[in-house]
Design brief:
Length: 184
Amino acid sequence: MTSDVGNSDPTPPPSLASRLGGWVRDRRRGLAMADRDVPQVPGRRWAMPVLAGLIAAGPFATLLGATVLAGAVERETRRMEALRAPRRIAEARREAAHVALSGAMMRPGPAALLDGVAAALPADAALVRAERSVDGALALEVSVSDPDALRSAVRRVPALAGLRDVRQQEGEGRTMVLLRQVAP
């Protein structure tokens, strides 16, 4: 077995708290030696508690300062958000209008739509009403004698293939058919 004397780590230097405690002890001993003839005055033992209080106060002061700063930052953030709220609302409205208008620009116009519908309808059918809602859904009301012929004619046109028969109403020898399309 080899001795560990040559391989031992050097002892670490004393910590700051240890050195401070030693300094206070030395000062107290020195004062006690110098003041042996002087009677002990009550209240001279205040140095250690004060020193311990100062050491403990550092982290608490840091915590208190951080809490105060965090509160100030949160108040400033809320104030900035309140100032930006009208702008965000305006931006959201502008974005919604942009989406609606871009969707409207991509769809065929009313004349092109009606031309396509007229070309797709059977010869005996008459378009009573055509409507496109804000969300882009198309609704057609057609008067026709044979609803099955109307449905098959509409399915052959790709632009109208999404129309679905929603309602049929018989009247005066003709059938009123309501066709609706979901928004593209």
